[in-house]
Design goal:
The chain is of the alpha+beta class. The protein has one domain: q2cbj1_9rhob like domain (Jelly Rolls, Sandwich), CATH 2.60.120. A hairpin with a 2-residue loop joins strand 12 and strand 13. The protein is globular, with a radius of gyration of 17 Å. Helix 2 packs across helix 5. The chain has 6 helices and 15 strands. The strands form 3 sheets. Strands 1-11-7-15-5-4-2 form a 7-stranded antiparallel β-sheet. Pfam families: Oxygenase-NA. Belongs to the iron/ascorbate-dependent oxidoreductase family. InterPro entries: DUF2086, Oxoglu/Fe-dep_dioxygenase_dom.
């Protein structure tokens, strides 16, 4: 099926997202992703934008489905998948982040011997997803209350999966909630797993590997397997928005 790029929703203003994303030091961020499988983009969103996005959670018209994690063994907590058209701010961020990450992803695939090459623009990649039958949007809004957590997992929704995704913390640690740290684990061949705990403030984003990334060894590059999750929330309420660049079946 050949689907056009979804239009932008008027629910939130798009804002100067491209200029904001382009202003980061992408050489340094690439080094972080290559070295550790994740990189923090400080203050990607303003507090006002964070509050506006978090406030959408109660407005069901923005979403295609509602998931209660405990029903599926995913942990405790809940999330909602946005439907098309996406809120303008979220759509703009998805389009602005993708070109920077596509270059990194193509470099990873080349090092791992994977033939998949990602196009320069997100609209072209979405078209490829839709032609493969992956037409459901995957950006999501997550909500946690005390006792909630997200088990280690990978967000793979079909044969086509972009290897890097982004999560943005919408709540302020210490003020809105305690606990709830973002956690990344890396399973290395014939070695014990490595854990990365990523400190975030409100509006900070973390870009991280969805599934595999290459690591240089004595015999060339090898693949490591990554999973991500969220530790137990101790108090308050925590909201996060997740930007996944491939669509789902």
């Amino acid at each position: 099926m050949n689907s056009p790029r979804p239009t932008i929703s008027p629910a939130l203003p798009e804002g100067p997202t491209k200029a904001r994303v382009d202003a980061y030091d992408w050489r340094a961020l690439t080094g972080e992703l290559d070295g550790f499988g994740c990189a923090v983009l400080p203050k990607l969103l303003t507090p006002e934008e964070c509050s506006a996005l978090a406030g959408l959670y109660a407005e069901e018209q923005h979403f295609r489905s509602h998931i209660v994690m405990a029903r599926h063994g995913f942990g405790k907590g809940e999330y909602r998948y946005f439907k098309y058209p996406l809120p303008g701010l979220l759509d703009g961020l998805r389009a602005a982040l993708y070109p920077h990450l596509a270059g990194i992803a193509n470099g990873w695939n080349e090092r791992m011997g994977i033939a998949e090459h990602y196009p320069d623009e997100h609209a072209s990649f979405l078209k490829r997803c839709h032609e493969a039958g992956q037409t459901r949007p995957t950006p999501l809004l997550l909500q946690y209350v005390p006792g909630d957590f997200n088990c280690l997992h990978q967000d793979l929704y079909g044969d086509l999966a972009f290897p890097i995704q982004v999560a943005i913390l919408l709540s302020e640690p210490g003020r809105d909630f305690t606990g709830g740290e973002f956690v990344l684990t890396e399973q290395r061949p014939r070695m014990q797993s490595r854990v990365e705990v990523v400190p975030l403030r409100q509006g900070d984003a973390v870009a991280f590997a969805v599934h595999n990334r290459p690591v240089s060894g004595t015999k060339g590059n090898y693949r490591v397997n990554l999973r991500h999750g969220v530790s137990r929330v101790r108090s308050g309420m925590r909201h996060t928005v997740g930007i996944i660049f491939h669509d789902a079946r």
